[in-house]
Design goal:
This protein has 79 residues and is mostly helical. 43% of the residues lie in helices and 0% in strands.
């Protein structure tokens, strides 16, 4: 359930358009955690907020909102 697991998952997402599409349909951080677990990565939803915008930049251009976790980009605590 480590930050390293989340970073490894994001690296996988960066190169997998099908996985990116799945994440775009998520409604909550818990949904992201579930998809990650299906792909062999375990971390908790709170780990997502520990990442900087730069660390997320490689996925969805740094806009985590793209994954449906925030319906309004202004709600994104990373911005």
């Amino acid at each position: 359930m480590s930050l390293e697991q989340l970073k490894a998952f994001l690296a996988k997402v960066k190169g997998d358009s099908n996985l990116q599409e799945k994440l775009k349909a998520t409604k909550s951080p818990e949904d992201v955690v579930g998809i990650a677990k299906e792909h062999g990565h375990e971390f908790t939803a709170d780990k997502i907020t520990e990442l900087s915008e730069e660390e997320l930049e490689g996925v969805a251009g740094g806009n985590w909102c793209t994954f449906g976790m925030y319906s309004d980009p202004c709600q994104n605590p990373l911005h």
